[in-house]
Structure formats: structure tokens, C-alpha cells
Specification:
Layout: E1 4-8, H1 14-28, H2 35-44, H3 47-56, E2 59-66, E3 69-77, E4 81-87, H4 96-111, E5 117-122, H5 127-132, E6 136-137, E7 142-144, E8 147-155
Parallel strand pairs: 4-5
Antiparallel strand pairs: 1-2, 2-3, 3-4, 5-8, 6-8, 7-8
Helix pairs in contact: 1-3
Length: 159
């Protein structure tokens, strides 16, 4: 594995990010969803939707790159909710998600906000990965608009 660089997502990267997310979703998460859930999720991660959330100012996005290729993505809302965390399947269990999360939490610290917890609505598939990163299950699995998720949280340490 070459050096992986993590930085803020730049305008124009939304199409590549959207494709990465949908590719990973299609293999690992989508098969457990009803058609309505797949459609809802696809709308949420369309390039234009990603772009609009970045412009809104209440979302923060990071990409992980190996050379010029985007291999990971993190999006955080309101400095307290992890709304998206996806890593290309070739890079699973190599620490990329953990690095994205740590850098996202560093950005929250730099903003001066202390949310107490970072929350995530994890897909059932990703629960073990989030547990390895220090998240705990906050509630039982739920479904909203066909999207299955497990509410989880991680204590946010400001220093």
C-alpha cells in the first residue's frame, strides 16, 4: 500500500466520492435493504447532494487518497454526527476508517466545540467496525424509509 493522504474534500471530487460510496454500499450494505432504502440512500449520496451539504456549512468532509485515487470518505454533520464513513473494499481493515475518524474528530476539536458524544447511525454490517473504533450501541436496530441502522455513540474527548 502506497502512502495514504487524508485531506478535506475539494469541489469537483463529489462524483468520484459518490461512486466510491455506492460501490461499497452495493456490495456490503445494499443487499440487506429493501428497494426503498437503496433508493433513499442513493439520493443522499448523489454528487449534487454531497456538494450541497458542503456548501451549507454544517457538514465537514474528508477524503483519503492513495496517489490520485479516492479510497475513503468521511462526512460529519454539526460537529457531532458521523453521517458517512466509507472505505474502498480493497482497503478494509487497514486503518483508513480509523484515520478518517481521528482526523474528523481533530477538526471538531479545532472548532472549539465539545459535543460530548459523536453519534452514527451504523449499517448493521458496519457495527463491528465501529465497535473496534470505540463506539457503543445506543439503541436497537431501527429502520427509516427502508434504511436499516443501529444508533451508536462514542465519547468525544476534547483533549
Amino acid at each position: 500500500m502506497n502512502q495514504v493522504i487524508i485531506s478535506e474534500m475539494h469541489s469537483g471530487e463529489e462524483i468520484e466520492v459518490s461512486k466510491l460510496i455506492m460501490d461499497v454500499f452495493g456490495v456490503f450494505i445494499g443487499p440487506g435493504y429493501v428497494p426503498q432504502g437503496v433508493e433513499e440512500f442513493a439520493k443522499y449520496v448523489e454528487a449534487e447532494a454531497l456538494r450541497n451539504r458542503q456548501i451549507s456549512g454544517d457538514h465537514y468532509a474528508l477524503v483519503a487518497r492513495e496517489e490520485a485515487r479516492i479510497i475513503g470518505f468521511l462526512e460529519m454533520r454539526n460537529n457531532c454526527h458521523l453521517s458517512l464513513l466509507f472505505v474502498h473494499s480493497d482497503y478494509h481493515r487497514k486503518g483508513i476508517a480509523r484515520r478518517l475518524l481521528h482526523q474528523g474528530m481533530d477538526a471538531v476539536r479545532k472548532s472549539g466545540v465539545n459535543p460530548g458524544f459523536i453519534t452514527v447511525k451504523s449499517s448493521p454490517y458496519a457495527v463491528p467496525a465501529y465497535e473496534r473504533m470505540g463506539f457503543i450501541t445506543a439503541e436497537n436496530e431501527q429502520e427509516e424509509n427502508g434504511i436499516r441502522f443501529v444508533p451508536m455513540k462514542k465519547i468525544f474527548q476534547s483533549a
